[in-house]
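Why show two proteins at once? Because comparison is the fastest way to build intuition. When a single record is shown, students tend to memorize it. When two are placed side by side, the eye starts asking what differs. So, the first record is below.
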Amino acid sequence: MNNELSEVSDHLDFGLSIVFIGFNPSIRSGEAGHHYANPRNNFWRILHQSGLTPRLYDASEDQDLLKLGYGFTNIVARPTRGAEDITREEYKQGRLILRDKLREYRPRIACFVGKGVYTEYSGRPRADWGFQSESIVDGVIDFVAPSSSGLVRMKMEEIIGIYRELALFVTD
């Protein structure tokens, strides 16, 4: 069944402030055709409460964030129930594809929505929250933010605080 779901289209353009990068779309996102479409995912609330968006957006409006300078992609395009369903080969291919996308579009910041997304991409064993000391793609700043999944056990205020760091940086 998972293989029958459509990939969720990237929303990428030149001159973006931030590209948000997830593991891969959820089943719900695959069905809806929009990023972060699972109602239990806090992504849209986090963006609004951190000051990254002027209002609360809905997943169906994901393409509209291009006007704000924000884009979306994933390390793996195939929708799955969870990141544990992604194969090693998909990660290997996804890393190369993602690097090429970042090299081509050159957003100011690559925001990895989850430490696991960043460690899979970078090949580094661990990462701290926030801005990384070294970037993988020259000229693109790497930022690691908590996953917005409803399964994350961090306090929402703490998650929003990390995203607020990003909001303050892009409004400077």
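Second record. Ask yourself what differs from the first in the token line.
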Amino acid sequence: MRQHQPTHQPTADDIAGLIARHAGTEGPLLPILHDIQDAFDHVPQMALPLIAEALNLTVAEVHGVMSFYHDFRKAPAGRLVVKICRAEACQSMGANALSEAVLGKLGLDWGGTTRDGGVTVEPVYCLGLCACAPAAMVGEKLIGRASADRLEAAMEGAA
């Protein structure tokens, strides 16, 4: 399970405070995005123009950086995050079929969250278990030689 649950919706003042922590530092965009996501479990759309203004960037530049890195979310994740590796080693060992099975059973697309807010499924591009492909992560638990049945059991165990 995730360690952090945001206590309230972010306000402009909340975002400004997180941005201010990086005033005068070199290359602050990624640290700011990480701080905002750590605080609110996602980077809300309303934060992008505030970040852009503070760093003298365009909103498009901030959005481009945010969308380039797969770890940044536009909406809060579910109570349980399931990550399935999409790297070549895992794909060669059945990750595509695994992904289709898990996403199909939950009725989700990549990055989607179940209606009850219980589970979010995200792609990742290496979990470091290439020799045990396909690899996945359920909450904080790494799973090598993952199958749909093993992931389902891990999800039930984490609930």
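One difference worth noting in the second protein: Residues 80-158 form a domain with the Glutaredoxin fold (CATH 3.40.30.10).
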